[in-house]
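[AMINO ACID CHAIN]
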Amino acid sequence: MLVVHTIEVTPFSQNARVLFDPSCSAALIVDPGGDLDRIFEVVDALKPTHLDVLLTHAHLDHAGGTAQCLEMAMSRVHQLPRLLAHRDPILRSMLQQQAKHYNLPIAEYQNVPTPDVMFDGGEEFSIATFAAKVLFTPGHAPDHISIYLTPDKTVLYDENGRSRETTQPIVLAGDALFQGSIGRTDLPGGSLPLLIRSIREQLLTLPPKTVVLCGHGPNTTIGFESQHNPFLQD
């Protein structure tokens, strides 16, 4: 069983997540954009013995708290936490410039450290005892990845602590695909044609009942978006 907690963080209402495998007490923090005290309330309640951090991409709202998150993680577990992300370093080195763009206090943001594990896309790796596959989904951001998992059962907790169970696959889609929408492509490195191609080739090819865990807003499914998302209709 995989347990997924969603925590809405930052003024951008970004969905940070904590994935937890009770069978081995391992956790993964996904996209720690900020509000780390709220994220670590969940972590501390779970009491993991192993803790890593993963970025779907390094836009400010998803990666702004990464450096501090790694420091806080080190105080919780004995094994050194790892950072997992795409190989492209450009956005990771521009956190302060991104903060300036949004008129946020530059001094509160640190660039993202060099990842311990770097992906190009297509890799298979393990999140605790669960097999995961990296899908390279650029277009919203040049370093954007999505993560596909097939647990036997997943318990999904929303921002308000309500839970639902699913036996369907799940995909951490970051800001590539939303319920009824797609990620913006007007930021540096964005490309609408590339994003549409990424979604069609990497996401819509997943099983229709796959649950999409979006970077903003509610969850959805691949089948629903394939049929109803206005950006994906021919």
In short: The chain has a mean pLDDT of 96. The helical segments are 36-46, 60-63, 66-74, 95-101, 192-203, 222-228. Residues 192-203 form the longest helix (12 residues).
